[in-house]
Specification:
Elements (H helix, E strand, L loop, with lengths): L3 H22 L5 E7 L7 H11 L5 E5 L4 E7 L3 H18 L6 E7 L7 H10 L9 E2 L11 E5 L3 H13 L3 E5 L2 H11 L3 E4 L8 H10 L7 E6 L4 H9 L4 E4 L4 H12 L1
Parallel strand pairs: 4-5, 6-7, 6-8, 8-9, 9-10
Antiparallel strand pairs: 1-3, 1-4, 2-3
Helix pairs in contact: 1-4, 2-3, 4-5
Length: 267
């Protein structure tokens, strides 16, 4: 008999498949898609459905993704501005009707003839758990011919790596990860990242020696280095900047601030 985790994964896949099928059934028309996540035990599926039944002038479909605890809402015929407006109204409604609700919303509108893959749909669902609840995240597909910038995440904590990977993918970056300094140095030579986001406390080789090794690698364009660490000693911070580190943040950290600092380093 499948265990709970397996059943949840299967349920999530079915939700993504249902959303994908729903998008196809809308034909070639513009179509809006929204994912809503409420922290804690709040499950707003029925509230969202009831609210749309009472207020929406267009057809809609609602699904619940039990794996990510998000609600998927399909809004055929709506432009991005219209979907954004619906998102603002739903956010306000949930804050008014569910005590302590802090809705996190990711939304998009796909133009005529353009439909997202199931992987993109899944990524949207996952991203709704990471966005800042103070704002609604507009999800956009990168249709440019330019290659996405590459970021290597180096941290021995799998939870931190997973969070950063999802967060950075949501921003359009191509991500890689390494659990220690030695594995990171091998990856840097193979994938030539544009930026290395690293903890200082690593197995094998860590801290300033790790940073020095990165800078000694024979590369046409050495990567930018952003330290994201638990170390708060002023002397360590000063030594990192003297060694050529581009930025330094301590944990716990603000994801929004990290986004801004990475953009500043890369652009």
């Amino acid at each position: 008999m499948p265990n709970t985790a397996t059943l949840q994964r299967e349920a999530a896949v079915n939700v993504y498949r249902s959303v994908e099928q729903g998008l196809k059934e809308t034909g070639a028309e513009t179509c809006g898609l929204m994912f809503i996540h409420c922290a804690g035990n709040a499950q707003p599926e029925q509230q969202v459905r009831t609210y749309l039944e009472q207020t929406s002038a267009t057809s809609f479909q609602v699904w619940k993704d039990g794996a990510t605890q998000t609600i998927a809402v399909l809004l055929p015929g709506l432009s991005l501005d219209e979907v954004h407006y619906e998102g603002l109204r739903i956010k306000h409604e949930l804050q008014e009707t569910i005590p302590g609700a802090d809705p996190q919303i990711t939304l998009a509108s796909f133009p005529e003839g353009e439909r997202p893959s199931k992987a993109t749909i899944q990524h949207m669902a996952e991203s709704s758990k990471l966005v800042d609840s103070s704002e609604i995240h507009i999800y956009t597909l990168d249709n440019t011919a330019d290659e996405p910038e590459r970021i290597l995440i180096v941290d021995n904590d799998p939870t931190v790596r997973e969070f950063l990977q999802l967060r950075l993918k949501m921003q359009g970056y191509e991500t890689y990860e390494a659990v220690d300094g030695l594995a990171a140095l091998e990856l840097i030579e193979k994938v030539t990242p544009d930026l290395v986001l690293t903890e200082l406390n690593l197995y094998g080789i860590d801290g300033l020696p790790f940073i020095h090794h990165i800078q000694k690698l024979e590369m046409e364009q050495p990567p930018k280095i952003v330290v994201l660490t638990e170390q708060r000693v002023e002397q360590t911070i000063s030594q990192c900047f003297r060694s050529g580190v581009d930025d330094y943040m301590t944990k716990p950290f603000s994801p929004v601030e990290l986004d801004a600092r990475i953009r500043r380093c890369l652009h």
